[in-house]
């Protein structure tokens, strides 16, 4: 009997029987498909956002999302973080401490960050608001270019979900000594980065992160997340958008991508890379 994705939809990946056609011949193949399902994040008892994501790391996902959105600045801002997989859906409930609830009230009234970090507005008019909300970095980290370029090699070894499904994104976070601190895979590139950031944020090790390596293209929403997390160097597998480079420059971040030939293209913040 054929096994369809919906038979086991809550897993990170499922087996699916498909037909393969090549050179006029058709045969059955069993392939792995990446899991995808909604995650509702509720803040202060009210629905805030619904993300389509790959199951796993729900608490870290919500924590990284809240940091990226400006809802929290510190793990101490959380009063509680709870995950419940109900019959009608997956829910993470976020409760803020009273002091943070007061200072973050602007996020709840204007909801500006939701459209900025998920799939909404575009245009340089957004950048001025983000620069006000996210101070440019003032670090003095300098990295070795050959060692930095070698971090792309991890993209081939630290993506088990992609190896089986061929459709997952990964976010890797390293310290200035090129040591891996956190990794996360997800159907969404935004979700993968939120999960990786959230792991370090909740363990109070986010300040150690200096480099992020992304399997995806670099869009301005991912630059926003890097700025909020204070991670100065962003490496992406594919080229960034022009708006991503514009925002990275304004936030004093380093943005670079892998070159198809060899090495990397550096778009801004090149002073952090020497060699």
Please characterize this protein's 3D structure.
By secondary structure, the protein is an alpha/beta fold. Among the domains are: 5-34, no CATH class; 143-274, Cytidine Deaminase, domain 2 (3-Layer(aba) Sandwich), CATH 3.40.140.10. It contains ten helices and 14 strands. A six-stranded mixed sheet has the order 9-8-10-11-12-13, with helices on one face. A four-stranded mixed sheet has the order 4-3-6-5. A two-stranded antiparallel ribbon has the order 1-2. The model is unreliable at 1-9 and 112-124 (pLDDT under 50).
Strand count, sense and closure of the main sheet? 6 strands, mixed
In the CATH hierarchy, what is the class of the domain at 143-274?
Alpha Beta
Task: Estimate the helix proportion, in percent.
Answer: 25-40%
Q: How many distinct beta strands?
A: 14
How would you sum up the global shape?
A: globular
Counted by DSSP, the helix tally is 10
What is the residue-mean pLDDT, rounded to a whole number?
85
- The name of the CATH architecture of the domain at 143-274 is 3-Layer(aba) Sandwich
CATH topology of the domain at 143-274: Cytidine Deaminase, domain 2
CATH superfamily of the domain at 143-274: Cytidine Deaminase, domain 2
| β-sheet strand percentage | 25-35%
Structural class comes to: alpha/beta
Low confidence ranges:
1-9, 112-124
- Gap between N and C termini, in Å? 58 Å
């Amino acid at each position: 009997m054929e096994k369809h994705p919906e038979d086991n939809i809550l897993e990170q990946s499922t087996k699916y029987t498909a037909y393969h056609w090549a050179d006029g011949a058709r045969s059955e193949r069993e392939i792995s498909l990446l899991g995808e399902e909604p995650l509702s994040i509720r803040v202060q008892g009210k629905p805030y956002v619904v993300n389509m994501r790959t199951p796993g790391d729900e608490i870290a996902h919500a924590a990284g999302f809240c940091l990226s959105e400006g809802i929290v600045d510190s793990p101490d801002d959380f009063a509680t973080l709870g995950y419940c997989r109900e019959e009608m859906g997956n829910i993470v409930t976020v409760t803020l401490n009273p002091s943070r609830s007061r200072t973050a009230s602007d996020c709840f009234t204007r909801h500006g960050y939701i459209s900025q970090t998920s799939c909404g507005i575009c245009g340089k008019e957004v950048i001025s608001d983000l620069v006000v909300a996210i101070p440019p970095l003032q670090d003095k980290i300098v990295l070795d270019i050959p060692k930095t370029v070698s971090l792309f090699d991890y993209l081939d070894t630290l993506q088990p979900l992609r190896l089986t499904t061929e459709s997952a994104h990964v976010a890797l976070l390293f310290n200035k000594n090129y040591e891996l601190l956190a990794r996360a895979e997800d159907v969404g590139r935004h979700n993968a980065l939120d999960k990786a950031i959230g792991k370090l944020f909740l363990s109070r090790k986010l300040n150690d992160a200096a480099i992020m390596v992304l399997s995806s293209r670099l869009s301005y929403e991912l630059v926003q997340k890097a700025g909020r997390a204070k991670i100065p160097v962003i490496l992406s597998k594919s080229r960034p958008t022009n708006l991503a480079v514009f925002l990275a420059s304004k936030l004093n971040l380093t943005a670079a991508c892998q070159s198809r030939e060899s090495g990397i293209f550096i778009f801004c913040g090149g002073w952090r890379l020497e060699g």
